[in-house]
Amino acid sequence: MSLELLLIIVLLVGFVCFVCGWFWHARYVSHQSDTYTPPITKVVTNSYLRRLSPSEGVPLGATNGSRIIAEATDIFIGWIDPDFRNYRADESGATTKPALADVYEISRDGNLKYLLGFLSSDSKSLALTQDQIIDFVEKNPEYLHPKGGGTFFLFESHKKLFVAFVLRGDSGKLKASVYHFANVNVCFAEHRPRLVVLRTGLIL
Question: When you count CB atoms within 10 A of the terminal residue's CB, does the N or C end of the chain come out lower?
Fold first, then answer.
């Protein structure tokens, strides 16, 4: 067999293998795009936040958005910060469908915006409505900090972000304070405060 003929055979075999491989890859990718759903991304290690809620999340009921913390005197019996009114952090929210929340323990001192950055690059996406916050407090009191540390909730009012801080007093009665999100510089972890956020797809 001449060298030229052998070279032609090798080239033909290589071309056939290339075509077959390309055809198989195209079919595989097409099949995967129709059937494959990416899993929820999970960050395995984080020294600032420790998830307390189950992997399936904490259910939030549907709300009509009408309730606000400033008027929830039947829930926050201990005290309601007058700054909910003074800061205009008293806007009712939109109606919401059933959703999920995640609860974290703050295990290391950190800026709140930095801590939220572990969960989403958009802090607003983690905010609950005030009606959802009230719904959470009513139906899931076991996830509130038992004493001393308090629980943070992010919410929006009049296009500004605020932080509600729910604290259980010595008598067990709940108190609610409010802060401008931009002013919460450091969350101290000494008493292991908690953070409740709306689930967006990323959990720790």
Answer: N
